[in-house]
Specification:
single chain; 248 residues; alpha/beta; Rossmann fold; seven-stranded parallel β-sheet; 46% helix; 15% strand; binds NADP nicotinamide-adenine-dinucleotide phosphate; oxidoreductase activity; SDR_fam; EC 1.-.-.-; SDR family oxidoreductase
Length: 248
């Protein structure tokens, strides 16, 4: 029997588009109050307008230590705690090393690794506290990638390195927090239609090769909702989710 999210607060980074936006919508649909985090305030305001009193907007760059710490404190002040953290904000630039721009590599490491570390570090004490409350459990879900599980492919070396890094961090954190009843899980999507894959051309390429198409952001939001609505005795540690026809 799935647990309700009524009375809980969920923080979703990257809530201004794609998987993060769909996840925020899905968690609010299950009864959570959702803190929407990203840099594009207009996009967050539009989503908050749709979700009404279930949502609050926090404009933040997840690579900025001080801003992330201030934001988590503001979430707790305004929404009363943190029961669920979804680390979704991410960036991908798939270029072979010989042609790569170092600034792009740095952005991937900053957003995909440091962003996850900073938001998780700032939220952790509140998650531990929430796990001692009426729900009796708290959740950290990080949106990694198939690229965090499989051996990297050409052009995806740095992106894959960032996702392997967060997978390693997440597994250690899972072991550290199990006794405190904070569940730590990974969702590892294959190709999903989003700004990231529309801009890179990966979505168009997948449309051409997959008769059934690529996944939609809501397919990954479903995986996150499944994880965080398990009975408190059950932790889903990892979900690898691909389009039916994606082989690698
Ligand atoms: N699409 C796929 O096929 C796929 C597959 C596997 C894994 N993923 C992962 O899924 C996650 C979401 O990606 P998506 O596909 O939904 O792409 P997307 O639509 O481009 O969304 C990326 C999100 O990250 C936020 N973000 C980026 N840099 C940020 C920063 N410095 N501070 C705060 N927020 C930042 C963006 O918001 P702002 O620009 O408003 O800040 C946006 O909301 C990423 O971690 C990605 O690696 C995607």
């Amino acid at each position: 029997m799935a647990e309700t999210l009524e009375g809980t607060t969920a923080v979703v980074t990257g809530a201004s588009s794609g998987i993060g936006e769909a996840t925020a919508r899905a968690l609010a649909g299950r009864g959570a109050r959702v803190a929407l985090l990203a840099r594009r305030r207009d996009r967050l305001d539009a989503l908050a307008g749709e979700l009404g009193d279930r949502a609050a907007v926090f404009e933040v760059d997840v690579t900025d230590d001080a801003a992330v710490a201030e934001t988590m404190a503001a979430v707790v002040r305004e929404l009363g705690g943190i029961d669920v953290l979804v680390n979704d904000a991410g960036y991908g630039s798939m270029v072979p090393a010989l042609e790569a721009d170092l600034a792009e590599w740095r952005t991937m490491v900053d957003v995909n690794v440091n962003g996850v570390l900073l938001t998780t570090h700032a939220a952790l004490p509140h998650l531990v506290e929430a796990a001692q409350g009426p729900r009796g459990v708290a959740d950290v879900v990080t949106i990694s990638s198939v690229a965090g599980r499989k051996v990297a492919s050409p052009g995806a070396g740095v992106y894959a390195a960032t996702k392997h890094a967060v997978n390693a961090f997440s597994e250690a954190l899972r072991q550290e927090l199990a006794a405190r009843h904070v569940r730590v899980g990974l969702v590892e999507p294959g190709l999903v239609r989003s700004e990231m894959t529309e801009h890179s051309g990966a979505a168009a390429d997948a449309e051409e090769h997959f008769a059934l198409g690529l996944m939609e952001p809501g397919d990954i939001a479903d995986a996150v909702v499944y994880m965080v609505t398990r009975p408190r005795r059950t932790a889903v540690n990892e979900m690898l989710v691909r389009p039916t026809e994606q082989t690698r």
